[in-house]
Here is the input.
Amino acid sequence: MIISFTLNNKVISIDVEPDKRVIDVLREDLQLTGTKEGCGSGECGACTIHVNGESRLSCLMLAAQLEGKDITTIEGISIENKMHSIQEAFIQYGAVQCGFCTPGMVMAALDLIRRNKRPSRKEIREGLSGNLCRCTGYQKIIDALEAATGATDGGGPRTMKKGEE
Here is the structure.
């Protein structure tokens, strides 16, 4: 089946089996390996992408569902080869440990701030609740998003010094 959709601002057509999972199309057919597969059952959020601007789990989607849609992956969020401010905050606040959950966390965070430009710490926690971090880096992830968005109810994130972990 040939499907056409917009991927990271480029219109593409690809011949795939209609029942192939989107994560497999992205990783195997299109070589976009930033999207990770953690659980394969929609429990961890590592495979989060945006479909028409909203977060979706690519491990639970079939290729046929991409037809005519606008898809954004972690590879598509940079602007002129510059990291998104959310990615920069993750680095600054030490929110990247093993990095496996990071693409899904960033994509979920972008969806959150699309809906709420200045979320509270509680709203950040709720907005990321479907994404798991095996390294238990949640506090640093929340601090990073608080700093990047100007969340107001936690007293502010701790400022990291260069080289501090």
About this structure: The longest helix spans residues 102-115.
